[in-house]
Write a structure and sequence with these properties.
The structure holds two protein chains of two kinds. Chain A is mostly helical. Among the domains of chain A are: about 210 residues, no CATH class; about 60 residues, no CATH class. Chain A has a two-stranded antiparallel sheet. In chain A, a hairpin with a 4-residue loop joins β1 and β2. In chain A, α9 packs antiparallel against α11. Chain A starts with a helix and ends with a helix. In chain B, the strands form two sheets. A two-stranded antiparallel sheet of chain B has the order 1-2. A two-stranded antiparallel sheet of chain B has the order 3-4. Classes of the chains: A mainly alpha, B mainly alpha. Chains A and B meet through β1, α5, α6 and α7 of A and α17 and α18 of B.
Chain lengths: ~575, ~525
Amino acid sequence: MNFFGSLFDEHLLTLITFLPLAVGLFLLLLHGIPVLAWRIYALISTILTFVLSVSLFCRFDAKASGYQFVEHLPWLPDWGINYFVGVDGISLLLIVLTTFMVPLVLLASWKSIKQAERAYIFCMLFLETGMLGAFVSLNLFQFYVFWEVMLIPMYLIIGIWGGPRRIYASVKFFLFTMFGSLLMLVALLVLCYLNYREFQALNLDLVALDPALFPASKPGALLQTAIPPLLEAGRAVPWWQTPTWLFAAFALAFAIKVPMVPLHTWLPDAHVEAPTPGSVILAAVLLKMGTYGFLRFAIPLFPSAAIEFAPLFMTLAVIGILYGALIAMVQTDVKKLVAYSSVAHLGFVMLGMFAFNPEGLQGSILQMVNHGISTGALFLLVGMIYERRHTRQIEDFGGIAKPMPIFAFLFAVATMASIGLPMLNGFVGEFLILLGTWKAAPAFAAPATFGVVLAAGYMLWMYRRVVFGPVTHAENRTLIDLDWRERLVVVVVLIPAFWIGIYPKPFLNPLLRPVSEVVMRIDAVKQAQAAGQSAAPLTQKIVAPASSASDGGDVRVDAVGNGESNLPSEPSTSLEAENEGIQ
Amino acid sequence: MNGLEALDLSVLAPLLFVSGGSLLVLLGEVLLSHRATFLGKATSPSWIGTVLSFVSILFLALAFFSAIFPFGEGTTKVFHATSPMLVLDPLANFAIALLTLAGIFVCLMSVTYLAEMDIHHGEYYALLLLATAGMMVLVAATDLMTLFLGIELMSIPIYVMAGFDRKKLRSNESALKYLIVGGFASAILLYGMALLYGATGHTDFTEIRSALASGNPPFAAAGALALFGFALIVVGLAFKVSTVPFHQWTPDVYEGAPTPVAAYMSVCVKAAAFVALLRFLGVTLESFADRLHSLFWILALLTMTVGNVMALIQENVKRMLAYSSIAHAGYLLIALVIGTPEAYSAMLFYLVVYLFMNLGAFGVMAALASRGEEFDTLDQFAGLAKARPALALVMTLFMFALAGIPGTGGFIAKFTLFASAVNAGQVWLVIFAVLNSLVSVFYYLRLPVAMYMKTSARTPARVDLGSGESLVLIACAAAVLFLGFFPSGLDVFFLKSADVLAWTKFAITALVFGAA
């Protein structure tokens, strides 16, 4: 590979992450240029980001294990804080989803944002960098920084360009998320402390890297290899050092963001008050931060606690599915209805995740993407009629199909995608989730399946009342159908809905390995618990693959190791270090 | 001869610079105000004020550099070999650098503000320098006598400065309140010192420590007396750093005092008193550590909770920042609860960050005050983003920094402080502290909400920004962001000496290990 090719590969993730913010800052410097130029530059840069992420998707090797496109630089080395980015199959899909949605959202809001448009565009670009940064971060501190920084642009988008109760909604959004993340910060500090106590060195990197290639990384004190054995060792420790409480702190932060019932109350407010682009990004990407956080941090770091909490989370997920659906059914505001449907959809995602089997996890991750696409499309369409009628009440519509046939058609497709009609994306995800749940816990699968029926009920009922029937309001007779820009936006959003529905393989392939690694970790813990073994061999099983993988000198650094290979019997470096710590 | 050769006068260098500068400014004011022209230029009060502010900045800068250079060497110089009274160790140098830097910033932001308020007199700068000299004595004091001297030399000029806008009732009220409460605090402090002297027979910190540690007190009740003395000294200093329940004066005084003076008080008085507490307790506390530990635990919790909860309901931004400064004092008290070198160095780092974010926030208010009108209510901030986008942007940055949002120095400061507390096993205190931070987010967000999300028919009267003010705001904003991303490990980009986190460790090492 030539020099520039390898340079490109090495810095691709950094480029993707910071390109939007860099363009935003550049535009700020050129503050005087007309708004149209801002729009065009922002659109081009976000499209370029999408193209880069597609190239990332194409270059990604689904067969290789571990993280790819890794970049590792010391940031605050004394604190074990590094700039550490990399992708696996899970983050890959979410990155592509993010970069896919942002240009479309900018295009959709081409005319609808009336005031302070430059600031709005800057917020969007800033937000994109924040979201991408959270998805690529493999250092816990770095993740936390992006996770919090992301709040600011979203808070401003809701608060400045939102509806009448925007200030209430934006502050509520900010405070709810901060509440969870501050307790996560405490748990993070406890992890720092444990890590330092055992190894006299801090490292908040999630996984090991080959020290020959990345001299700044210190193997043996890494979170994912060091923390679970430490915590699962079953020593007598104060309550705040137990995996249960640490998991609870992380899980609270993520559950608020998902949001899981009963922590969901910020969501309808934020969705209803946010401007259309804000709602779309919130639904499509921001909510996925929570589910992604579970998969990337909470579950791998505290597997035994995750198993312990699984019944609770599955119960809450099923409650979310049914409760979200029932509440959605009685909504009179279309946007609020879609917002509550998000609660139900995210319930499916959580249900599949805590089934802890390959089907459930794959379905869960795929459903994150699906929800982004179908709910994003619904919010876009709702925004489009809101711009025409300045109302979102279902009773103000009826018979929209006559003046707006193209809208009615696209709305139908988006509705079907959301319901989970076969051949569309929602079906694949929900099917896999229900299959996985059935295998793991049939008791939860039955009510969840009933939730699918309810979803069809409230969505179709809403669709009938808005689109079909006679035109009851005179204003609706003269509505203008979608113009080319709007059609383009919605059609482009819905293309992947068909793609995933008909041929999901390219999207499921990159998930196979990360999912099998999660399942393997969980199974190892479960087996150990079932066999009543002591903690020591259990920790060896979890740790061993990581150390064996980091022995190799491959450029694509293997982090979590090869799931199918035999577990090597020699103790890992981290275990040795741990033993020293005990002595 | 007369024993003067035993004194190391170079210890006094920063002190001499600022007190000499103070006298020079006072003299200049007297001489210039009686002349119609000076060097061919027509004099006016605001011209004289500007000239004198430059003179003060020059002397503060001299003091700053005379503290920075010995700091780099890491030496400890004592004023008198056998009874030190004052030491210029890395901690003192660090604190002096911090205080003089803040003094320079306050001078810069005062020039236009005082002219707008029509109170541009040279005495202001003389008082400022004199108060800074007092703070220097305070942070370098290793003896109860110099500690008291420093407190008084710091406080008396500030009583005057708080009432500097003498035609305004609010300013007068502020000065009077501060004077009465300050006098009260000094009396308590002095009483505590007397008791401690009575119990140990010494005024020097290290001698007190060894007297207490020796285990043969001069009389039976000496231990109890010393404990009581300690408590009273802590109370006296607690008035200065405004911890609950000794905080009631703070919002009234900040609200009434001219904005730069409030900024100066909130940053410098607090920093100097905290460093004094740190030195006094760090050197002498050992034998009482257990008994005062729980006292500080309760003080820290009460201070941050009351500060944050009271800040929620304020409509005046100065009052809000006053309560927020109380809350920050609560966070800083955590370091005294923990009492490890790590916690102390986190506290010093916090003070550095706090300097920039709080001076920045007050600086924005000072930069908006016009023609005798303060700019300090939330209503006035409504819609500011449209009228003054740059000021609204930096104010938002300072609010996010004060709230501890990542990407700003405020977050790193909280992170290091809370990390040191977790490392000492104080998880409950950290949980209370982060819940407090959550409460604080709510009121810090009120300013961005007002500036960006509300509209107002009124626009601020002032449309221009003095060059001093813009310099302060740019410097503070840059520092807040910079410390948020590179508090440490700067040797990648800059000299090793720009590593603030390492500085704080350096400053603490000498104190803790020198005393042990």
